[in-house]
Structures are given as structure tokens and as C-alpha cells.
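Morning run. Coffee first, then this:
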Amino acid sequence: MKKTKIYSLLAIAGLFLGSCTSDLETEPKYELTLEQLLIRDPNAVEGLLSRMYSTFALSSVSGPGDSDISGANAGESPFIRGLVNLNDFTADEMKNRWGDNGLDQLTTTTGWNSNNKFFKYVYDRIYYTIPQTTNLILILKNKVDVPNEEQYVSELRFLRALSYYYLIDFFGKGPLVNDTTYGSAAPLPEASRAELFSFVESELKDIESKISNTNTYGRANQAVVQMLLAKLYLNAEVYTGAARYNDAGTYAAKVISNGNYQLESNFIKNFRADNNTSKEIIFPLIADAVSSQSYGNTTYIINGGLNSTTMNLATYGATEGWGGHRATKAWYGLFGSNATQLSASTDVRAKLFWTTGHNFEMNDYKEWTDGYPSIKFSNKNTDGSGNATSFSSTDFPLFRLADTYLIYAECALRGASTVNVGQGLTYVNQIRVRANASALSSITLQSILDERGRELGLEGVRRQDLIRYGRFTGNNYLWPWKGGTLNGTSISTNYNVFPIPESALQANPNLKQNTGY
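And here it is:
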């Protein structure tokens, strides 16, 4: 088990769950309200805050067999699993062969509808975290005093903003639950993408100067807030119609100049069980085989790409291989246009695919041996030590410095006056040299998109990148099984956002379905 992490406080955090659900229980577990709990024990705020961080990494603090989301499958509904499903399987890099209950819709970008449970799980997870954080924010601001209160409130506001960021990206609209509207008896009105963007921007800018510059591993600090602002501004033209590359560049530069982060000399350390010691990871979602177990964190990524009949599971620290996920040539083809060239590549990232017994071409996305499983993530330490465990201890690097470098370079190429192309080229080459790839003499927007593909595969950003580049919908870029055909075909522009789940539409008559669904 890793050294002390934030989720070690989940024993206290369970009080939050109990207090929030006690009115639905025949025999409430706890009689104290959150307000009473914090008055009696101000230190309980640590556990309550930990509870909110855990909503991005676990299915529930009650264990991997339970879910915070009512009626949801505990293994399928955690946030990280949803992020991979919606941003990686729907894009060019990864495909899943299981096809169960709507997964085929994602992996082939066809037939998306409001009854797909994977859309519902992500939407419900977002709207689980938003009101919970808001409730705690209001209690801390208006009803109780605890030491270091502004820091706690700032972290909660960040987590709420992070939830809204994914709502903006995935669904484009939804009710705005904030300090003013929380607890409304009537269904809230629908907030547009631009309105949600403005709220997230204002929240993050306000807490930027209030949150600490440093913090415990796994918790938000000033650089984490700045990184989310950089990512928000990077995609602003998609979200609002107005480009904000100057601002994205500014905030990427702030993160870089922070000085608390640097590229790890060994690329793979960012995806191993000891990545809590990586100097590159800005904001992780924590996994631990003992204290924070989940089928939907990196356990899903690692086990999903392994097969016990052809691969030695212990090599990757796993006890099960689910045989589901394989990359396509749209990802590993960035290192070589055929199997021979891929094998000959000196790029360390090109070696993170299992090729033995598998075909370069994915002629059938449901055939396990078509396409190469990604072995980028592993449940072993960087030096190969560690035991095989049922759950993963590898943290998910939601934000890391290499992404910041690439954001900086892209903004420079898009004409941002706050950054410069020369420095962007330097940053890109630092990433490439670290991977034992040759340095570039110049960069273009296309080379940045390709480098993002090489560097950030399976990290939950690819669909977003393709949309920003105008490559996701339409037919100007095709990949295997796009639109449900072997060589890819055009898909409609309405696929740039997901459908609002039917359950949400029924619960709130003010919500309107996204166009085309």
C-alpha cells in the first residue's frame, strides 16, 4: 500500500454519506446533521472534504460493490470509467469489444440515444458531486467556523467547478446548482453552455488567489486551479464560440512557472503504482488496492486491457484479465505506419502496446486479437516490484505537466500573444526527448495533435482534442470503426455533445434534449 493519501480519511467521510441518506433509512446510521457534526468536531471537515474528492475516483466509500448513484452498477458507474468510455472509446485511439448495454454505441460512434446507461452514469455522477459540494460550502460559509476554512471552501469550489467542466464538455448544458439556487423546491431552469462556462470561469478565478500554492498529495492547490482554467480556455471556442487562446496560454505558463512540477525522466513512472512520487503529476485521482478499491478507476484500464490466456497478469500486478480494450492504428500508427515500423520505433511510448498474437489492423472490433492492447498503465512499481492485487494502486493522472507543455505550444501556434512558438517547440522537444524520440525542427498544429495522441492516449482527452481540431464529426478525419464501418465514415455534428439522459429530462421538465437526439 502507498504512503499516506487523502482517502485514508474515508472512515470519517462515511459520516457524510450517512447524514445525506439518513432520511431514507429505516434506522438512520447517524443522528447528527453535517452542521452539528462540524460544530462538535471541526476536524471532521477533513473527512467530509475527502469524501468529495473520492467521488471522482471511487464508486462509493462503502466499497467497490456499492455506488453513490442510485440504481447504478457499482463497477460501471465511477467517474474514471466514464471518462475513458466517453473520451477514449468514442474517439480514434481505443475500442472495446464487449458491446454490452450501449458500449457498442460508444466504440462505433453510432446510435447514441438518451437511454444509454453510460451517458446516464456520467451525468448522474456530475449531479451527485455538485449538490454535495454546494451543501458543504454553504455550511462552512454560513453556519460553522473551522480552522483554515477558506482553503476548504476553495477546494470544494474547485471540485464543483471540475464537475461543471465535464458537464460543459460532455453535455453542453444543465441546471446550474450554486450557492443561490441550492435547495430550490422547483426544478431549476436549463443553463446554456456559455452560462455554465461563465460560472466555472468566475469560480476558478476567484479561488485562484485564495487556495494554497501547495497542498497534500491528491488535493487541489493553486496550480491545479490554473490548469483547469487553461483547459477551460483551450476549449472555449467550442464551448462558447469565442476563442480564448491568449488566456489558455497565460494559465499554462502560470502552471509551468509554478516550479513545483517537472517532467519525470522516466515516462512510464506516471502510470505505475508508485506514481504518487512522480514530480510531473499535477492532480491525480487516487487508487489504492487496500484503502480505495474500485472496479472503475485504473483497475478498469489495466484489467480491461489484459487477457489471462495470452498474457502474464502478474507482470502488470493484476489478478484478472478482462480482455476488452485494444488500441487501434490511429494511436499506435502515430509511431509507425505498419507493424514493422512500430516495432522499430525508438520511442518508449511505442513499446506500450501488446503486439504478440495481435493484428495491426482492427478488421473486427469485437475480435480480441484485432488491434493492440495498451499496456501503458500497470499496477507494478516503476522498477517492476510489487505484488499482484485484485484492485489497482496506480493513480489516474488527470492533470500532468506534459499536457501543460502541449497546451502552451498549441496556444502559441493558434496565435496567442501571451506565449511564443519558440518556447512551445522547446517544450514539445522536451517531451519527445524524454520519450527517446527525435527532436523536431518546427511544430504545426497537426504535429501538436499527433504529439498529444502519442503522449496522452488513454488519459481521457482524445475526443475533446478531436472536437477542438474539427476532426471528430464529419468526414475530414476517419478512423477504424468511426460511424460503425471498418475504415470509418462521416458522423453528424450533433455527436460533438452527448444526449441528455432520458431520466434527467423526466426529472426536470425545463431541460431540453440536445439537437439531433
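The longest strand covers residues 281-285. Good start to the day.
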